[in-house]
Amino acid sequence: MKKLLFIFLLAAGTASDLSAQYNNPNYYFDTYTTAAEALFNNPKPGKAKVNFNFFGSGFRIKLELISIKQMEYLPNLDSILSTAKSAIIHLADSLKDDATDRKVDVFLNKKGAIQLRITNHTDRASIFAIQQEELVEMKTEQDTLRVKFMVFTGRQNSYKNQVVYRDTAPAFISVFINDLSKLEQLSSDIMQRCLSLLQKDVTNEFVAKSSSLAYYTASYNLSTQKRFSPSKPKWIQYGRLRKELVPNIYGSLQFVRGSLSPSMAAGLRFSMPRTTTRTNRFYLMWEPYFFFSKNAQTKTITDRNDFVTFRFLIVDEKERKSGGFEFINNFSLGYLVNKRGEWFEKNTFKVGLPGVRSGWLQLEPELYFNNFVKNFSPTLKLTLHYE
């Protein structure tokens, strides 16, 4: 009887709330097939312009905003999450610890009403394991709690010094956890911990200078209290910085044709992000190599041999490590345009292959040859990038 009453109240609240939302011309919504989707899943997960992720031990928290400007007007997020956790106590019988994957949607509307929806993913393939000669069903996906609430966007319309309306839009807190029944194990200030970490990068000054139409994303490790994606704060705003053309320099040291040769490179780097974490980089560099020898009078002679080099590099933030060397997808092709001394032959090419990198330091194999792979010689090139 209690469950029937709960469903009736939910349906009644849904109908009244939806009519109010659809009459608001500034409401951000997509086209949905059902009213329930419009109420709870509007916009759909991952479709918001702002997505910040916080990874803990056995759980992940995601903050989704329609506009980065909403960062200035966020309510007490720990209070929002606490209200949602208290609300789903009514669904305690449906959140028992078993192998079923679940999603609970909670909507806290502006009038203070709480509406809930629970979805059991029972149509997924069952996976079993044999433990102590017994067949045990395994849980392979995490449960999800997605809390929707309304936040001021900073936009308002005034007429004769009177505010006609203040534009509000949805915001979401999502918690991905092994079992929703374990939500109470999260600390009561977990959202404040997330915001404190985020606000080191997304400061008030950052928000003030940011575009409400651009896309933003970042991921943080709550245990280490560090951001691990993207590698630089300026790339958090990836909607406007999708492409970047900047000057680039680096210095290298390699053993070539029996001599230790330092080199410097100067040119342009063009960055083209392919996803929120993966970026393709293209370099066009002028690269002089310096060789030192002594003549019969023991005077030092410097021979400069210039290459024009094209370099291609794939940077994937998901695979980057905080310390130590990591494999890097790198390829380069250079051609000798200025020859001095007897170090290289005419029509000399050099090819750089994938290597390893740690921070600004990169180690890669490089091959030298002229014409059709004549006078072939390999080396290892150590490069210090300035980025």
Write the layout of secondary structure elements.
Layout: H1 2-22, H2 35-40, E1 50-55, E2 59-65, H3 77-87, E3 101-108, E4 114-121, E5 127-131, E6 134-138, E7 143-159, E8 162-177, H4 190-198, H5 204-209, E9 216-221, E10 226-229, E11 244-256, E12 259-273, E13 278-294, E14 300-316, E15 326-338, E16 348-352, E17 355-358, E18 361-370, E19 374-386
Parallel strand pairs: 1-9, 3-7
Antiparallel strand pairs: 1-2, 2-8, 3-4, 5-6, 7-8, 9-10, 11-12, 11-19, 12-13, 13-14, 14-15, 15-16, 15-17, 16-18, 17-18, 18-19
Q: How many structural units, i.e. domains?
A: 2
Terminal Cα separation, in Å?
65 Å
What fraction of residues sit in β-strands?
over 45%
Biggest beta sheet summary: 9 strands, antiparallel
Number of strand segments: 19
H/E element string?
A: HHEEHEEEEEEHHEEEEEEEEEEE
Range of helix content: 10-25%
- Number of H/I helices: 5
- Mean of residue pLDDT values: 81
Note poorly predicted spans: 1-29
Net shape: elongated
Question: What would you say this structure looks like, in words?
Answer:
The longest helix has 21 residues. 14% of the residues lie in helices and 49% in strands. It folds into 2 domains: 235 residues, no CATH class; 143 residues, Porin (Beta Barrel), CATH 2.40.160. The strands form 3 sheets. Strands 11, 12, 13, 14, 15, 16, 17, 18 and 19 form a 9-stranded antiparallel beta sheet that branches. Strands 4-3-7-8-2-1-9-10 form an 8-stranded mixed beta sheet. A hairpin with a 3-residue loop joins strand 18 and strand 19. It is elongated, with a radius of gyration of 29 Å. It starts with a helix and ends with a strand. With 387 residues, the protein is mainly β.
